[in-house]
Design goal:
The protein is an alpha/beta fold. It contains 13 helices and eleven strands. Strand 2 and strand 3 form a beta hairpin.
């Protein structure tokens, strides 16, 4: 057993922690902090969102210290790349965590997601990994390593804020999401290619949809990990979720409270990806950028 390391992924919607010794996970947790709330509209991070993130990060530092972690890597992605007042966020991280966060490019974000997603799948691919985040979606194609990757500004938080002002949304609002996503998916696939591969989905949209499709009475990572979600089920869930109001979606057993208001946009993004690629199914992985970050420390 090696020394424990800590990986922290701070995205647009959530901040997550993984403590591992390379052989087993010692702690894995998530807090929905919505750091990117309003960034698409204002270009700035909301001070309340920075404070929510600080509270979660303070909790994570306690966990990290309890495990005697030797090395930490915190990666900050879409929202903190885009914001005009990102310096406020980074100052908070230095004070709270005791070290800076790394702002990584969309390409590096994609590579880390790929490394985490394909670990444990077996075989050599090719794989096409899609990581639907809050502010962006990464598309990564490769075998043992990444061949091509691209990051598109079409996450579930960004699309919800841009196009879905009412709950439940109107048909016109749903159509606006599809139009926005449609062009971005086409550009992404033109870059990475849409040829034969195993389609792999990571992050909260894919895992939540898989949990609903499996009919789980609670969120069960072991059941969801490496489950297969048919394209027809994704399309059915997109329609079903869009017809439900906030309270009805919140009552779904596997639905995290912080995902209730953005799952419709996430489902539409995944539906369009599957429609344009023509894949009949997607393999859902609970391992993603967080596992890729941890692996990068352990190497």
């Amino acid at each position: 057993m090696g020394d424990a390391v800590a990986a922290i992924d701070c995205g647009t919607n959530s901040i997550r922690l993984l403590v591992t010794d390379g052989e087993r996970d010692l702690d894995r947790r998530m807090r929905i902090v919505r750091l990117g709330a309003g960034v698409d509209r204002t270009g700035r991070l909301d001070p309340a969102a920075i404070e929510r993130t600080r509270v979660a990060l303070a909790e994570y530092r306690e966990v990290i210290e309890a495990f005697g972690v030797s090395r930490i890597r915190m990666v900050a992605t879409s929202a903190s790349r885009d914001a005009a007042n990102a310096a406020d966020f980074h100052g908070m991280v230095r004070v709270t965590l005791g070290q800076p966060a790394e702002i990584i490019s969309g390409t590096e974000e994609a590579a880390l997601s790929f490394a985490g997603a394909v670990s444990g799948l077996g075989g050599e691919g090719p794989y096409l990994v899609v990581d639907i985040g809050g502010g962006s979606t990464e598309f990564v194609r490769g075998g043992n390593t990444v061949d091509r990757a691209i990051s598109m500004d079409m996450g579930c938080v960004r699309m919800t804020e841009r196009h879905l002002p009412t709950d439940p949304p109107t048909p016109e609002q749903l159509a606006a999401v599809v139009r926005d996503v449609d062009g971005q998916v086409a550009r992404a696939l033109a870059h990475v290619g849409a040829g034969p591969a195993t389609l792999v989905g990571v992050a909260g949209t894919a895992t939540t949809l898989a949990g609903i499709a499996l009919g789980l009475d609670r969120y069960d990572s072991a059941r969801i990990h490496h489950s297969v979600l048919p394209a027809a089920a994704v399309a059915e869930l997109a329609v079903r979720l869009a017809a439900l109001d906030h309270d009805a979606r919140a009552a779904i057993p596997v639905m995290h409270p912080g995902r209730v208001d953005v799952i419709i946009a996430g489902a539409l993004i995944l539906q369009e990806i599957m429609r344009q690629t023509g894949f009949a199914e997607i393999t859902v992985s609970e391992h993603d950028i967080l596992d890729g970050i941890a692996a990068s420390i352990l190497r």
